[in-house]
Amino acid sequence: MDHMNITMKTSKEYLYSNKSYYDYPSVPISKPESKYTQQTAYQSPQYVSSSDEGSYGPNPNSNPQSQPYCTLESSMPPNPNSHNSPSTYSFSPTGGSPLSQQESDNTNISNGSPISVSCITITEDPNPSQDELQQKLRELESVMLGPDSDAPEYYQQYQTGTPNPSEWMQLMGIPRGDLKQLLLHCAKAVEENDFVSIDWMVQELRKMVSISGTPMERLGAYLLEGLVARLESSGSSIYKALKCKEPTSSDLMSYMHTLYEVCPYFKFGYLSANGAIAEAVKGADSVHIIDFQIAQGSQWITLMKALAARPGGPPSIRITGIDDAQSAYARGGGLHLVGRRLAHEAASCNVPFEFHPLDMNGSEVRREHLNIRHGEALAVNFAFQLHHMSDESVNTENHRDRLIRLIKSLNPTVVALVEQESNTNTSPFFQRFCETLDYYTAIFESIDVTMQRDDKKRISVEQHCLARDIVNVIACEGEERVERHELFGKWRARFSMAGFRPCPLSPLVNATIKTLLESYSPNYWLQEIEGVLYLGWKHRPLVVSCAWR
């Protein structure tokens, strides 16, 4: 397809770089030249460039009149360690209410306390100017009428030093109604602790975002949530609360299945990993698969059927399924349910089968847990999981590299790696925000072409399957930030340093994925570079799949 060729050229430029997908402009913080005096003035150039370069431009589809801001459900107590800002950002404690921001009564920000009688000194000037007379009259008016008087609007602005939102946006060069630009400026203000700017921008953003609006309006609601959670230092609490207070397991399973069906990302990952494993173990009589996030185990049903149909009969298959206890909620039970389901499928295919459950986090896995047997072809599956492991930037244990080295010491036949193609691991906050905005814009756009905007199930899918991760990337730091994606170039460096060599995916895998994409939007594209497969949406690569040995 022509559109695929165009996007391929664009994406190829960064595929082997460890840098972020975009070079973000440094945004100077300076005091605007205006009649307003403020505690922390904020000014930056626009974040606008061509869409071919994947940068950030105005969003003409933003609709300030959309459904009111309403995002995730939680009941978070106020955090005593929150930032001291002019307004208090908190989350509604009412049971079952949407996550929202409660404004404090202190909405006027001034450079000092209100003028009192004791601080006014009128000096005699034989020839006062008109401006000086106006100034004295205003001071007297403040003393007599108080700060809450019905003084004209221009005087209220003079006293507080805060222009109205329209003037703020004009001062900073933000086109009116440009949600993307306002989100970027707000993120920069958060990075700089510019609470004066944050205060009004958050209020304006609430009017512009909507969980049932355009892709940018919907994503903006969750990005705004992450920014507010970061200010409150409550990002980790929200992430954990949402992970525990999910809908019923049957509902959550339904949302996950919906996302699996409407977007090809997971199918792409699982099919490509299965293809790499099937190719590597095609001559083996006994196969041991270690899956570091087995979830429902659905990935292995198709592989068992494929191996059962090979000439000479199927091999015996043993699967070690690793998953933490929190995943049991989505399944409605422990890993024994996965083992029972897979055993049933194996029996239907006449495949000799064993299941070994490991109910633990991937970072806790040690060699003695894996029950390695001599003579087995060993296949290891890292599908959308390894980015959860902390690395050298988080702690000295560096579980990310430790696990890779551990697997290498087992002399595996093949290791399948599937990850989001995004750079949110070690990037500074503002670059991480820009990367998250760009990456999830593509995700939300791809959902938009399949599900109606007023579809309640679409809202639930985005809230329970995507929003929690967005909040974690934006609001959390250190070990509490578990969503730490890296670009393929970085993964390649890690695996190479551990002694792995790339194992190119077979042409059959490529052809299978192309057939899969025929039933989806033409905006999806597939690209292979030296045996590594990339799946993308428009200008943006989203998922990468590769194999190692």
From TrEMBL:
Transmembrane segments: none annotated. Residues 256-321 are annotated as: VHIID. The keyword Signal does not apply. Residues 475-549 are annotated as: SAW. Residues 35-53, 88-112 have a biased composition (Polar residues). Keywords: Transcription, Transcription regulation. The keyword ATP-binding does not apply. Residues 54-69 have a biased composition (Low complexity). Residues 29-112 are annotated as: Disordered. Residues 337-369 are annotated as: Leucine repeat II (LRII). A motif (VHIID) lies at residues 287-291. Residues 177-237 are annotated as: Leucine repeat I (LRI). It holds the Pfam family GRAS. Belongs to the GRAS family. This is GRAS transcription factor.
